[in-house]
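Good morning,

Both structures are done.
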Amino acid sequence: MIRLNGLEKFYETGAGRTYVLRRINLEVKEGEFITIMGPSGAGKSTLLAILGMLDSPSGGEYFFHEHPVHKMNPKERNKLHKQYIGFVFQQYHLLDNLTVYENLEIPLSYRDMKKSDRESIVCDVLDRFQIVGKKDLYPNQLSGGQQQLVAVARAMVASPRLILADEPTGNLHSSQGKEIMEMFKGLNDSGTTIIQVTHSEVNAQYGHRIIQLFDGWIVDGKQASAAR
């Protein structure tokens, strides 16, 4: 599904180049559950943003289902993103001027489906996440944990082929966090590819393997132990 060859990300400064990612080589097969770990500043969120086609690499190659993402312009990347990817952002990225219901409906609006089908899917997701009572509220009327639940629900609503999650349970109670990780596991068991960034050793064990980043380099890639 994903192949990275010598991927790099850097920023030009007065002192020269500041590298965020260095020579990243990585393959992700369809149906894998990958965990990315590392200290703050290691490049985890940057790598996830590039994988999600929200940012572009400075060098190297990124192939997604054999599409050369590194050669695409932002419009082409955006189209591919909407077609295949659900993204859980660390800072939620809900649209403040839309209700919870409308935020959930947005990913479905990119698909060729009838309004009645969209309504049915959104109602089902509202029920699954136990947020039916919040559907007419706006993000600023929700707690941080509630916004996180909506953000996870929005990533899942269109049944994407790939879910990218940046600290998906960071603002949730432990019981809610476990429920979300179990949902991810269920989706993965059904064939959805998942890549998560987390500091949680418990959450990391839901994945098949762990990729360790340090100062922008991959320093380790190991099998997750038997939490699954």
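Second structure follows.
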Amino acid sequence: MHWMNFPLIAVMIWSGLRIYWANDVYRIGLGDWTLFAFFPDGFNERLDLNRHLARGMAFHFTFAWLFTINGLLYVLYTWRTGEWRFLAPDRRSLKESAQVLLHDLHLRKESPPTNGRYNAAQRLSYSLIIVLGGVAVLTGFAIYKPTQLSFLTTILGGYETARAIHFAVTIAFLVFFFVHVLQVIRAGWRNCWSMVVGYELDRKVPR
């Protein structure tokens, strides 16, 4: 279930870009002055993302259901097996996460404290990404069916706010996966393969 999120989210981002092409409203700037525009026309044309709105919507909504089902199964699995105890952060996680970051950036020589299978930074980031997955699903429903699910759209601040949150969550997913993959590669092939198959590989005991 864990490794399935990568292809699912990859397809959803690809199809989401096709949907975003139809109304690319987000930018960084002040007033009429634009410093940076997300996914300008040149980007869409090079990747052939423009003029494919219907195809993008079909793929996006189909894979959104698969992502939702997979997420619910994962949450159910962690709850029934007690795995959530290894993932849930505690009151020391925020402080220890800063220590992990400084150590990874080689700004701190002392190794950060370990508490179970995951360090504090992993506990925080993994828990946060699960929450963001739920936010992505809720905001997605809110902007997919704003009339039928008007109560949800209203709770999320209206259509425009829900759409902005959905877009921001997508950017957060991109940053998380980029850092996550780099950390997995840095940890070695054995760790990467364990993430794919879903269980830890036994290390050979030297004789």
